[in-house]
Amino acid sequence: MLDSFLHYLTVEKGLSRNTIEAYHRDLTRFLFYLKGKGIEDPAKVEKLDIQAFLLALKRDRLSARTIARNLVALRTFFRYLIEEALLKKNPVEELESPRLARKLPEILSPAEVERLLQQPESQTLLGGRDRAMLEVLYAGGMRVSELVKLTLNQVNLEGGYILLYGKGSKERVVPIGQEALKWVIRYLNTIRPSLLKGKESPYLFVNRSGKPLSRQRFWQTLQVYGRRAGIGKKITPHLLRHSFASHLLEGGADLRSVQVMLGHSDISTTQIYTHVTGERLKKIHQRYHPRG
The domain spanning residue 263 has which CATH number? Predict the structure, then answer.
């Protein structure tokens, strides 16, 4: 049942590999829990069993967000079993999702972003590539998985934009601006051919073996540059994505345009950045207003 469910998510729903892996991990944990209770038939799962499982996750000190994600996985799984006529009753149906406090994302200031972008030694092959990657990541506000998988066909140098395939393979077009475009052109003309050494690759950014960088490798590289820049915050690719959105809104961009560029299906996801900019404005007001 789990295998057919994961196949359904992949083929019919078109969910990303990372999302599929999260569902697989959460549901496997649940099935192991049931096995430990002597329950091997989903038809015998009761609402109390689900509640006991969620309580066990809480006792294991998992965060409220992780527990909520597990509940979403269970809801989707049991709904699928009902739709496929594999079950007659849904034990998750009446369970309420926990209310989560929306955590405001941390962001970098424009000055911190500038310091970070200047850290790669751009006169070297890898440094020049890293500078181009950082510029594109910040200019396009993309996810790290979208960055490392970028192909040459997705980049339009004349138009100055990139075609991205986000969650669920949804397409979106994102402009990257003149500065990032300058570094990409320099990388394509002088660096990428030297890294490939005569080999061919469909990917835009490659390592010395001519292969695309892994997400983990880029993450590690980014943290090194963050330390060099003297930035005390935990530097992640998503931090630059948060900063991209916040800086656009602070500059006067409308919420709908930012939603499109981020690839959010629901504008309520994008609205969290209005709270971030509101918090920053309050701090500025308190600091500089004579009655702040």
Answer: 1.10.443.10
